[in-house]
Design goal:
alpha/beta, Alpha-Beta Plaits, GMP Synthetase, Chain A, domain 3, Rossmann fold, 3 domains, seven-stranded mixed β-sheet, 34% strand, binds S-adenosylmethionine
């Protein structure tokens, strides 16, 4: 289905609840309008949310209004920390929202406001404290696993939870998996927990993220099942002692640069999940990288994971090595 025509069919009574959920996941498409359809509404989405409602194709009209305020004021909750994503919020408005969030979410003890977008090789953002203690370390629970992390020193996005489950559910019996840009370990750990016969190699360069990756392996009792390697994937991956049935490349701004190293280590019929940031109107960077590979690669699936900015989307390409389809 074409991503620009996707919608979820939601009972009218649950419309507002679902809209907020989609906003939090970064999957609500504010450029198109919601349309009523009997007892339901068709709500525009950018990808396939894992929320249990039917996804359909629909020609929804363009939205006449600017993006809703709640979209700009969207927040994420990581463990007991809430993060306001709108860097333009005034200190007064940010504080007002913080009080509202703390009132609604009992677990939240600190509210941060983003002051600089995720950037640099380590993909870390900057924050200021709006409410509560200036302690940015927390423990987040996702899909039955625990993730200790420092919001200000490591990358972590709860908006990728659906995507992590999608990948974890594809893992087959006895697979050896490579998580090339593992961060604090969410793909690696969820895959290992849900697939007891799988072994995961997790590579991470940022020393702070690597420290939490190692702690999270222990926290989730996965010693030996998830093998951590600290270093740059460009050098670390070629030195690994095995080939892989599945390779996860979640470094969307520069993943294609590492595709040759991944392909080199891919077993025959392996699947590579390549995450990229693409211009909404002119996608194509992933296709170019796939077409210039020395091995026979075939794109067997592609989808939008979330909106990165009004112009850019994070997308994933599922690539089969060896040319046969899934
Ligand atoms: C977008 S984050 C994804 C982290 C994790 N997969 C997740 O879903 O939370 C990318 C991670 O790759 C790490 N990284 C960046 N360049 C790297 C490289 N050349 N080799 C290994 N890790 C790298 C960053 O430090 C960061 O933790």
């Amino acid at each position: 289905m074409e991503a620009s025509r996707l919608a979820v069919r939601v009972p009218r009574t649950r419309a507002e609840e679902v809209r907020r959920m989609l906003l939090r996941q970064g999957l609500y498409d504010g450029s198109r309008s919601i349309v009523e359809s009997g007892d339901s509404v068709l709500m525009p989405v950018l990808g396939y949310p894992q929320i249990g409602f039917e996804v359909v194709e629909a020609d929804l009209p363009a939205s006449k209004r600017p993006r809703p305020v709640s979209m700009r004021a969207a927040f994420d909750i990581v463990g007991d920390i809430a993060v306001l994503n709108d860097m333009d919020l005034s200190p007064e408005k940010a504080h007002e929202l913080a009080l509202e969030i703390v009132g609604r979410h009992r677990r939240v003890r600190t509210v941060l406001q983003k002051t600089a977008e995720v950037s640099g090789e380590e993909r870390v953002a900057s924050y200021r404290v709006v409410y509560g203690e200036a302690d940015t370390e927390t423990v987040h629970r996702e899909s039955g696993c625990l993730f200790k992390l420092d919001v200000a020193r490591t990358f972590f996005s709860p908006r990728l939870s659906g995507e992590r489950l999608r990948v974890a559910s594809q893992v087959g019996e006895g697979e050896t998996v490579l998580d090339m840009f593992a961060g604090v370990g969410p793909f690696s750990i969820i895959i290992a927990r849900r697939n007891p016969s799988a072994t995961v190699y997790a590579v991470e360069k940022n020393p702070a993220a690597f420290k939490y990756l190692c702690e999270n392996i222990e926290l989730n009792k996965l010693r030996g099942r998830v093998k951590p390697f600290q270093g740059d994937a460009a050098q670390t991956v070629p030195a690994l002692d095995t080939n892989f049935n599945r390779i996860i490349m979640n470094l969307p701004h520069s993943s294609t640069k590492y595709l040759p190293a991944a392909v080199e280590k891919a077993a025959e019929k392996a699947t590579i999940h390549l995450y990229v940031v693409e211009d909404r109107k002119t996608p194509g960077s992933a296709r170019q990288a796939v077409e210039s590979s020395l091995r026979n690669l075939q794109i067997v699936g592609e989808r939008t994971v979330k909106e990165v900015s009004p112009k850019a989307l994070m997308r994933v390409y599922d690539i089969k090595v060896g040319g046969s389809s899934l």
